[in-house]
Write a structure and sequence with these properties.
This protein has 2 domains: about 350 residues, Tachylectin-2, Chain A (5 Propeller); about 90 residues, no CATH class. Helices cover about 10% and strands about 35% of the residues. The protein contains 5 helices and 28 strands. It has a 6-stranded antiparallel sheet, with no helix packed on it. It is elongated and about 80 Å long.
Length: about 450
């Protein structure tokens, strides 16, 4: 499996996703430098210059800006007005300004951000909450993606599509006008909502809970989860979505890594409809570093999660509330040549009749990544029933080159029609799919087959 091509039960297929620099957000722009000689904010100086324009010039500049950018965004004038409201406290008599002047000020404090200009990778796949209107044997899915833009800042994007029929997964065309939605922060505690303080630099507390809500009338692919809390100011990375069952209705959870430019911390994203999301921190001895992934249901009355708490081994932890996690039990440590640098998981476990199927990633010579698998007991997931001795997926010659070379990596797949449908990132440059025949894979994990 490690060097002679794919096993016969692994089928690489289309479609492919590539980074698209034309997918841009209209983000708040604030001049970052201060005029040290006077102690005056650059924002204040920019405002003064805009206010000094005569009305005719202001009208012409606004009209030209709208004509050049309106087709690249959903409700561009609405964005200008929202951004004006964030800097209005700096302007004496802001309420008396003309609508044109207010919109123009908003335009000057807006920038385009190409959210996937640098990379698009590390997907996860879950069943869509809406399965209406499909043919027999079809399944609609949601795929999350890690997008990287200017400054190596990561965010979460979505795509939708359908499984079933010939030709592999069918992806819907993404909406051309992505949006970051409306954020409702929590400023003091996880059970208290409060209005944010005024000002253009307001942000939630460093690791606060917050909510993001999107326009339900717009496609899911228009929704972008962008860094909000200070703990994730430099990116939200590698969301591992899982459809969680056992309550009154299914819930979708995603563990992800928050990065502030210096340190990382695990957080949990939760939604019931992919319209409103809650983000909250994870706590406890196992909630550190990268690599948490929730099980799709409780086991023994407790939430379970895979961890890489020691940065190189695969462990198991539990929680009563999916917030505070206890110490980890180590399931396996690096021991095979393809995983001697480190190992971890590639998404949440998949429940099968044979046990919990866990996709693993290993890092070997030349920082080459491969994807393998192990099987855990359904009732006692601390029991390892079997594991592959070598990865079943490694980079092909066509997948080796990219932003980070020699990598294949996934944040989770799902089972459909007897196959594990696995989206995976190739060297952080393109996303592809592999269809893995479940029967032969489980047979090998149970010590049967070649």
């Amino acid at each position: 499996m490690s060097g002679g091509g794919d096993p016969e039960w692994v089928h690489r297929t289309g479609p492919e996703l590539h980074p698209d620099p034309s997918r841009v957000l209209a983000r708040l722009f604030l001049p970052g430098q201060e005029l040290m000689s006077s102690g005056t904010s650059r924002a204040a100086a920019v405002i003064d210059r805009i206010l000094a324009l005569d009305e005719q010039t202001a009208t012409a500049v606004l009209a030209d800006t709208v004509s050049r950018f309106a087709d690249r965004h959903h409700d561009l004038l609405g964005t200008f007005r929202a951004h004006f409201s964030l800097v209005a406290h700096r302007i004496a008599g802001a309420a008396e300004l003309s609508a044109t002047r207010r919109d123009l000020l908003g335009a000057y404090f807006t920038q385009e951000y190409a959210l996937e200009a640098a990379a698009l990778f590390n997907p996860s796949l879950v069943a869509h909450p809406d399965q209406a209107g499909l043919a027999d044997g079809e399944l609609r899915f949601v795929m999350s993606l890690r997008a990287v833009g200017e400054g190596h800042v990561s965010s979460i994007e979505f795509r939708t599509g359908v499984l079933g029929g010939a030709g592999g997964p069918r992806l819907d065309a993404p909406d051309p006008h992505p949006s970051t939605g409306t954020v409702a922060p929590v400023w003091l505690s996880s059970d208290q909502r409060a209005a944010p303080p005024p000002g253009d630099r307001a942000e939630p507390a460093r690791d606060a809970t917050y909510w993001v809500r999107y326009d339900a009338d717009r496609p899911l692919s228009a929704r972008v989860v962008f860094p909000t809390a200070a703990v994730e100011s430099n990116g939200i990375e590698d969301a591992r979505f899982v459809r969680f069952t056992g309550g009154d209705r299914p819930t979708w959870h995603a563990t992800y890594t928050a990065y502030d430019g210096t340190s990382v911390a695990p957080r949990l994203l939760t939604t019931e409809d992919f319209v409103t999301f809650e983000s909250r921190r994870q706590e406890g001895p196992s909630a550190k570093d990268k690599g948490m992934a929730l099980f799709p249901r409780k086991v023994g009355g407790r939430y379970l999660a895979l961890t890489r708490w020691d940065r190189e081994s695969l462990g198991l932890t539990s929680s009563t509330d999916a917030v505070r996690w206890g110490a980890s039990t180590t399931l396996t440590r690096p021991g095979r040549p393809w995983e001697l640098v480190q190992l971890g998981q590639c998404g949440s476990p998949v429940e099968t009749d044979a046990g919990w199927l866990v996709l693993t990633h290993g890092v070997g010579p030349m920082r080459t990544y491969g994807i393998g698998a192990m099987l855990l007991d359904l009732e006692d997931p601390t029991r390892v029933l079997g594991s592959l001795q070598a990865p079943f997926l490694t980079p092909t010659a066509q997948e080796r080159d990219g932003y980070v070379p020699n990598v294949v990596y996934s944040c989770g797949g799902l089972v459909h029609a007897g196959q594990l449908v696995l989206p995976y990132g190739c060297s952080d440059a393109v996303v592809r799919f592999a269809l893995v025949d479940l029967g032969p894979l489980l047979a090998r994990l149970q010590g049967r087959g070649e």
